[in-house]
Write a structure and sequence with these properties.
Shape of chain B: globular
Strand content of chain B: 35-45%
Helix content of chain A: under 10%
Shape of chain A: globular
Strand content of chain A: over 45%
Largest sheet of chain A: 7 strands, mixed
Distance between the termini of chain A: 37 Å
Number of strands of chain B: 9
Distance between the termini of chain B: 38 Å
Oligomer: heterodimer
Structural class of chain B: mainly beta
Strand order of the largest sheet of chain B: 1-9-8-3-4
Number of helices of chain B: 0
Structural class of chain A: mainly beta
Chain lengths: 115, 109
């Protein structure tokens, strides 16, 4: 099956710093990727849709200036959490698929802890 | 509306079949039924999908009622590693994933 790889799997950063998370589709090209956030004991919440070559689309309530998304190639999308604060600590997950009509493949997730 | 209805939790004995129901009464004619699961602290994993006919793959079987308003995911011989939260979607392709609470399946020895 298709593989989506996410890096890093775990990161601890100091409050006020920025963290970049990478999401790669390893064996297919993805014009669209999705970023989710999951707080403890809650379900995944869609943050944004990453579009190759164009601006990301953010869900209501998600600050686009805080969560910078770059989808510069057909196999890589990055999420940068800028000026991270402890409340940004969460599990961030990306997904991609061969096209928007077929199943999604998820990365293994990134556990971000802001101290 | 991408919402479906699933029981909050279920238990299953190891080695027995786990039958997870899902109600998707508002499904439209061209919407597929998709199932994913999330094992603790991992990204979700695609399991299976179907339109009208029952489907089977190496992970599970999917039984869809004739009126397509509900379906059942069957794990024929559940193992401890099948303990996870299972999500049912109508639509369910990557562009349409709005996660609800799913069913927390606990497989017990």
């Amino acid at each position: 099956g298709a593989v989506v790889s996410q890096h890093p799997s775990r990161v601890i950063c100091k409050s006020g710093t920025s963290v970049k998370i990478e999401c790669r589709s390893l064996d297919f090209q993805a014009t669209t990727m999705f970023w989710y956030r999951q707080f403890p004991k809650q379900s995944l919440m869609l943050m944004a849709t990453s579009n190759e070559g164009s601006k990301a689309t953010y869900e209501q309530g998600v600050e686009k200036d805080k969560f910078l998304i770059n989808h510069a190639s057909l196999t890589l999308s990055t999420l940068t959490v800028t000026s991270a604060h402890p409340e940004d600590s969460s599990f961030y997950i990306c997904s991609a698929g061969r096209d928007i009509y077929t199943e999604a493949f998820f990365g293994q997730g990134t556990r971000l802890t802001v101290v | 509306d991408a919402k479906t209805t699933q029981p909050t939790s279920m238990d299953c004995a190891e080695g027995r079949a786990a039958n997870l129901p899902c109600n998707h009464s508002t499904i439209s004619g061209n919407e597929y039924v998709y199932w994913y699961r999330q094992i603790h602290s991992q990204g979700p994993q695609y399991i299976i999908h179907g339109l009208k006919n029952n489907e089977t793959n190496e992970m599970a079987s999917l039984i869809i009622t004739e009126d397509r308003k509900s379906s059942t995911l069957i794990l024929p011989h559940a193992t401890l590693r099948d303990t996870a939260v299972y999500y049912c979607f109508k639509g369910g392709s990557q562009g349409n994933l709005i996660f609800g609470k799913g069913t927390k399946l606990s497989v017990k020895p």
